Amino acid sequence: MGTNRSTMLAPLRQGLYPTDPSTAATSASCALPPRHEAVRGARQFTRATLGQWDLAHRFDDVALVVSELVTNALRHALAPEGGPTRPGCEVQVHEQGGETPVRLHLMRWTGRLVCAVRDPSDEGPTARQAEEDFAAESGRGLLLVESFSDGWGWHPLAGALRGKVVWALFRLG
Q1: CA distance 111 to 171
Q2: Which of 124, 16, 43, 27 is nearest to 76 (CA)?
Q3: Predicted pLDDT at 162
């Protein structure tokens, strides 16, 4: 999938319902601190959650995708430590007053699992184009997401929340 707005909505046209936790049979989420060490915590959360859902056999693919989505959110959607907020970014404030700039959601329906990462940036993710340098050490994350999941996309948040959700879908069974 690409990253323009028509592609962003393509999964909705395909009948995939990406990220409404209220309709999921089971869901879990965790707030992640705005540090790159949070990627390890996201993988641990994913391992524990998939184990509870009897989906431990899907951990490798799902964890790779979760790692890429969380890394992208931390790298591209948050301001560098001590620096100004990136354009379009605003830190979300949790009800208890703590900051929750990045949140991982895992949602399971009967035949699918969705991993979604919310971040405060309004800018959509950008996948590497075919003619770009694939030997580079960074920039391949969304290609991995596309390769290991059954689909991915993103959408801007609505209402009082600012930012976006980037999600990946896994078909089960």
Answers
A1: 6
A2: 124
A3: 83
Using CA atoms, how far apart are residues 83 and 80, in angstroms rounded to an integer?
A: 5
Find the farthest-apart pair of alpha carbons in the chain and give their distance in angstroms, rounded: 47
Cβ neighbours of residue 165 under 8 Å, at least 6 residues apart?
18, 19, 105, 116, 117, 118, 154, 155, 157
Strands 164-171 and 112-119: antiparallel
pLDDT of 140 reads 75
The residues of the chain scoring below 70 in pLDDT are 1-24, 79-100, 128-139
For the CA atoms of the chain, what is the radius of gyration? Answer: 15
pLDDT at 148: 95
Owner of token pair 């959408």:
155
Q: Name the residue among 56, 50, 57, 67 with its Cα closest to residue 145.
A: 67
With b for 16 or more beta-carbon neighbours within 10 A and e for fewer, the 52-61 pattern comes to: ebebeeebeb
Q: CA 81 to CA 109: how far, in whole Å? A: 37
Provide the whole-model pTM: 0.75
Q: CA 22, CA 93: separation in Å to the nearest integer?
A: 21
